[in-house]
Design goal:
Layout lengths: L4 E9 L2 E8 L8 E6 L2 E5 L4 H13 L11 E6 L5 H7 L4 E8 L2 H9 L12 E5 L2 H6 L13 E6 L19 H8 L2 E11 L5 H10 L2 E11 L4 E11 L10
Parallel strand pairs: 5-6, 5-8, 6-7, 8-9
Antiparallel strand pairs: 1-2, 2-3, 3-4, 9-11, 10-11
Helix pairs in contact: 1-2, 5-6
């Protein structure tokens, strides 16, 4: 196989053919890691700005003066991928625990074996969970198999390409009002839901998000695409459950 391209692993999964690849691009110093599902690229280490910004924006919401959620923060991430969102979460010193859920056990295995760099699986605050995030949101047990009905300060999701461009049709219910209301029950008062999307802001989805949460907005994240020599954009949706009532001064 060419020194510029290597397939590190390949698996047959319930969603189709999954491959982990490493390649080198001219002008790019570090090797680029890619996860591909069938004919679609799920993630590339060449484009990680929005994945990291997703975590940064979510956690920044929890440290605003009007909210001031005390540390340590408990965070759940739906979707592991190459781990950039989870790593950005763990860079925040206020984070006490992180549960990362992925339905593809191969992806978890790649992290645990070190095929994907970063050392995410070795961080004692982080636990990688094999499961269907969308089904777990709806289940009575919730998002942490070790602690049923556990609530989080932030739930961050990067699984589908967008609320309309889904990896599987069964995921559609999550983006409707009932699904988002169920998710909101997994958050503490003032907790944050953050969602990555490859598409421009979707006003119809944002309207549903506003119905399910006390506050909601969309932020456009701009980053450089060195392969196409142009700027690219992703969207981060941010939503809050009702904020706790501040205590009056004695």
């Amino acid at each position: 196989m060419s020194a510029r391209f290597e397939e590190l692993d390949w698996r047959e999964t319930p969603l189709g053919e999954l491959a982990l690849r490493r390649r080198r691009y001219p002008g790019v110093a570090e090797p680029v890691y890619e996860i591909k599902l069938n004919d679609e690229f799920l993630m590339s280490s060449l484009f990680t700005v929005a994945e990291e910004k997703l975590a940064d924006l979510a956690l920044a919401e929890l440290t605003t003066p009007e909210l001031a959620v005390p540390a340590p923060l408990d965070v759940a991430v739906g979707g592991l991928g190459l781990g950039y969102t989870a790593e950005a979460v763990l860079k925040n010193p206020d984070v006490g625990s992180l549960v990362v859920i992925d339905m593809l056990d191969a992806v978890i295995d790649w992290h645990e074996r070190g095929l994907i760099p970063g050392g995410l699986a070795a961080d004692p605050r982080c636990r990688l969970v094999h499961g269907d995030f969308f089904s777990m949101v709806q289940s009575a047990a919730g998002l942490d198999p070790l602690t049923p009905e556990r609530r989080f300060h932030a739930i961050i999701v990067d699984i589908d390409h967008s609320p309309r461009h889904l990896l599987h049709p069964d995921n559609a219910g999550f983006y409707r009002l009932d699904g988002l209301l169920r998710l909101s029950e997994r958050l503490h008062p003032g907790g944050v839901f953050a969602l990555w999307s490859n598409d421009r802001p979707d006003e119809e989805f944002l309207a549903v998000l506003t119905q399910a949460f006390a506050e909601a907005r969309a932020e456009v994240v701009t980053f450089d695409n060195p392969l196409q020599e142009r700027e690219a954009t992703n969207t981060v949706y941010l939503a809050h459950t009702p904020r706790p009532t501040p205590r009056s001064a004695p």
